[in-house]
Amino acid sequence: MPKFSIFSIRASLLYLVIGGSVGGIMLVSKAIGVWPWIWYWRTAHIHAMLVGWLLNLIFGVAFWILPRLDAHGWRGSPWLVWSASGLLQAALAVLVWASIRPWSAAIAIASSLECLAAIAIAWHCWPRLQPLIIEPRPAQNK
Amino acid sequence: MPTLARYYIRTAFVWLVLAFAIGIAMLTSQLWALKSNPLAALQIVFYHALMVGWVTQLIVGVAIWLFPVHSREQPRGNEKIAWAAYATFNLGLGLRSVVEPMLQWAPSSLVKWAVVSAACLQVAALWFVLLMLWPRVKAKVAKAK
Fold it and tell me: Cβ B129–A16 below 8 Å, yes or no?
């Protein structure tokens, strides 16, 4: 598994646990009426699960498993996937910050960063979505 | 496909069917034109059945199957953790699906503490998933010549 995939998949697992734990606290709050402030974290919970968990996982697995670009196993320039990941983490950081200190522009900024991340990952994956090319074996000399 | 992965993936399909059944019930109930629709309480259950029961459980099942093996002796890592994750995941989500709408329909202290238990089970399940999959997210080990 390449370095980027290890980073992205491990980040996705952390988002799953952190986002899920926030969801668990929200459920406890709903049941017994404690910690009402946790409801400010609802948007962060949804984004941690849908973007942090699912998109990071998809980015990591796509980089690892999509067809390679040449016989040496070249996956394409990694700067695009690292940029996509950086934009995604920045979007999530904006949302978490906005949960702590409400900020009206946060959703617009985070969504724009997520959109740029989507463009970057699509740009990287596009040339790798190709049919399997099986080259003919070299002719044997008899 | 390992037994563990089959359990996860088959149970994910059960949650997919349940999610759609809940979705159908909610949509159908809108035709009754009631002043307050009691099935609206199922909306949160529908989202979680779909995103946690179906999507997340399917991903974990496929990851157990396809991620790099942990070691020759324990290819899927510690299977006890994986089974604990499976049990807590489905018990937590199942209990939550039953008791969370009851907070609106028939709230009682028993229901409230059942919701708290469901939350604890679900959070525990996610930590077990992390413990199970983390060591399997790794670079390919070069074979010694």
Answer: yes
